[in-house]
Amino acid sequence: MAIRPRIRKRVQAVRRAADGSAFEKCEECGLMIAIALFDMHECGENRREVKRFKCISSGKFENISKPVGSFEDEPRSPFVFFLEDFKENYGGNLVDASRICFNVWKNMSEEEQKPFIARAAVVDLAHNRKLNQENKSIFKVDHYLWI
């Protein structure tokens, strides 16, 4: 019995513009549009305005929520503690605060970083204790019964 040749499926090639790019210029409005989306393009009177989200910053830091419940006790690096304190005292934009805070942290001596390192160690220790208590409370199944 002879082996039948495999039937090969035809694959549709990706459509391209005349110059080979994946974008084509609309003749009516002159916009460059992706060829894959060209059939959905609307121009002229049918065109709808796209609504974009515009972030309005109040500049106040009261809106920022603190970590909820168990996340507060999760271990964090000393830099994160410094960042939280810095943002509370900084009066400007949050993005600027992050940039400035990083540069300040890099230039701080180890003596200045010690309070934040200590806070991180305390939170890490509390987290490890909680994990150990959780491990002790878990009911251990005798795995020999399942073999």
TrEMBL record:
GO terms for molecular function: DNA binding. Keywords: DNA-binding, Nucleus. The keyword DNA-binding applies. Residues 72-135 bind DNA. Residues 72-135 form the HMG box domain. It comes from the Eukaryota. Transmembrane segments: none annotated. This is HMG box domain-containing protein. One of its GO terms (biological process) is polar nucleus fusion. GO terms for cellular component: nucleus. InterPro entries: HMG_box_dom, HMG_box_dom_sf. It comes from Eutrema salsugineum (Saltwater cress).
